[in-house]
# Entry
Amino acid sequence: MSRRALNTILAGAVSIVLILWLVVPFLMALMWSMVDPGQPWSYPDIFPPKLSFERWKIVWETTSLSTAMLHSYSLAPMAGLCALLLGMPTAYAFGREEFPGKTIAQILMLTPLVLPGFVTAVFFASLLLSFGLFDRYPAILLGHVVLFLPFAVRILSVSFAQVRQDVVNAARDLGASPIGVFRVAYLPVLKPGIFAAFLIVFVLSMEEFAISFIVGVPTFTTIPTILFSYLGFDFIRTNAAVVSLILVVPNIVLMLVLERLLQSANPANVSGKG
Amino acid sequence: MPKALRIVLLLAPGLGLVVGLMALVVYRAAAQSLGLYNFAGTDTLGLTHWQDLLSNHNYWGAIRWSAYVATTSSLIAVALAYPLALWLRRPFRGSTFLSAMIKAPYLVPGLVAAFLLINVISFHGFVNEFLVWTGIWQKPVRMQNDKFGYAVIGLQVWKQLPLAFLLLTGAIQSIPDPVLHAAQDLGAGMLARFRKIILPLTAKAMQAALILIFIGAAGDFSFQSIAGPTRQDSMATLMTQLQGANHNDWNGAAVVGVSLMALSLVGAVAFAGLVQLVAKLAEKAR
Amino acid sequence: MPRLQVKDVAVRFGAFDALKGVSMAVDEGSFVTLLGPSGCGKTTLLNVIAGFLPPTAGQVLIGGHDVGNVRPEARDTAMCFQSYALFPHLSVADNIAFGPRQKHHPKDETARRVAGLIEQLGLAAHRDKLPNALSGGQQQRVALARALAVQPGIVLFDEPLSNLDAKLRDQVRTEIRELQRKLGFTAVYVTHDQAEALALSDEVFLLNRGVVEQSGTPRDIYFLPRTRFVADFIGAANLHTGQIESGAMKTPFGVFRVDSADKARATLCWRPEAATLGGDLSGRVTASAFQGAYLDLFVTAENETIRLQVPGHHHIEVGETVRFGIPIGSIVQLAEDRDA
# Structure
């Protein structure tokens, strides 16, 4: 089958391109993060003269990376939790209720995705200034929650829609209390969706840059903002490499878990990421 | 409890919060652009800030630049994603691997992507090393922060290709096999099937992809500041600069912000219209 | 020369043989049916004829020419799909005009042809509607009109009526057959519904697990089945296996008279409606179902159960002993059956 052979050759060629597209940049970052401070890597060396984890230690001890990580890793789960709690009622309405104006409501829910991120960030900051809200953590938390609620609501709506009404009726018919009905008819179907929604808000919050930058800098740092500082005026390539890897690797792992969850929950669904 | 009340209560914490805050943000941007909420002085409702910026050539430069980057990125991303999505329509050996690799950049945060790119094209990066090693170039060439924005466009395409691919794949795979077989059975070859069946049925997805990528690229800040030409502003960098500590010109920033929203809207409508036009022409052409 | 010839076609998917050496010849203007249970290979065979599936072995000849290298779009076949496969974004008229437009026929001729087909298939009221505004039966007619618009030599039908409700099915199948008689195209019709096959076909090819078990006219297949599978698949069959001696086989119900030579082991087959009340055979009724035109009886003797159909005006209850007879001409001896 010459057609099949052509296909395989093409697949091979594109794979090579994709590997270059993806793997090489990461390899470079990894190598840079492991350049030994004593022996800098410069032209004409093809590989760093010496590899060590010195750089990682230095970055951890001398920069505010640890604070930034603390901030990021405390923001993200909170954002996930709040998005879940605030989004569930709306998701229930979208998934199981019919009402006039439902389509408009669903479209309006997507507004944070349509407004340019930095415009939202700047004028959110402007509002905060006017209202005298100077506490960074709650402000950024609010920003993240609002920005990522559409994702949570979308995933949860689909989950709610999959709850079978006949199972709910059966539970009620057999005398279960509202909590009992929730536990037996809703929860099993919602569980993957709940995890997925939490995860996606977590990941998006970890990576969010616009609001953290505009509202947070310079007092409240997150991993993305600290990375940005290494890419701006003080371009310290090796530090940037370290922070990049710290930002990316856990996220990739979480996203893969998320993909698995979404497939088990909503076989035909496309998530907001991945 | 009457149904209307119950629905309102259900929608309030989620939809209500989102719409409320977004409405406030948009109002604030519009209001500040018209001189209200002036942090640096007194509120004066009027078009002075607009006039100031409209006569500022940096402002127009930023608009042109953002429009250029956004248009080019969305067209290239969709032009690359479409053939890939068509090719990967039905599974074959290695197709899942290819799909995963195409979607992978979506997992990488923008800043990291920017860093990875500069790393690769930097003075000591892979590209330079490789081309010097093979003898194509005598010595390394400075490639980042180039004045045509190729680095920025490249980054946008790298980051957004997965989105275009996902949207197009969804539409292409929802065309049932029998429909394409029927077309073939009635005499349509590969090109005819593409023009008359696939293109019209995927036009909406193409619109969505172009519009979303345009909006995302038009509002870009990080790629521009890291890999963009040094003296050029995108609308987002200009806006941030104006509201920043150096200028404290929130009202000016608001003008840029509102303009950016307008640019997004215009781009979206233009692309929607363009796709409709192309689909109609392709179908009619003999 | 037959319009369509299939010579020893085999199709293999990995380790699975979907078709194992199938041959058939279809004359110009005849209506043949490929009948069989799901998985028997009938749709696979149809796809091979249409060109969507290349055979692993064998040849397909259309009009005497080997079409092995001819792509589907160039073959003189048109298919009517089970799911109708109408182009969702085109109106009824545009769907029908698709084929002629592809072949660049002159505009007025296409328009005339489309108008004619719309008229013929009763679609005038739906001309400009999109497929999703049509009912199943209407979509089926559009699919048929679309296939006929290219004036194909052979029309292939892939279980076209399986998505319609029973009453509509009867009506549309009659329309299809009338249209085929009037226009004279050759039809290859795939179905799992034996009633359809019997009613429509000039010739039936009964497929089972990738091979043609028997082919012939509907009456041949019904009254002269050659194997156990064929006997069972078409209608209901009563089967008795045993020894034939002096033109008779002993069974728990009595002695069956057969017009056949002595044989150590043979299988006899007869249809339930062939039985008449009163005769040398007897058994005990274990189930009785009134079906209006006839009474369906399950009759048992010594652990064997057979099925009888007698006119509905009889009253026979469960537990009664019934006497019946079967005309000697209604009993068929099966050929070597492979499903033993």
In short: The helical segments of chain C are 42-50, 92-102, 107-120, 136-148, 166-183, 194-200, 218-223, 228-233. Chain C has two domains: 4-229, 237-333. Residues 4-229 of chain C form a domain with the Rossmann fold fold (CATH 3.40.50.300). Chain C is about 25% helix and 35% strand.
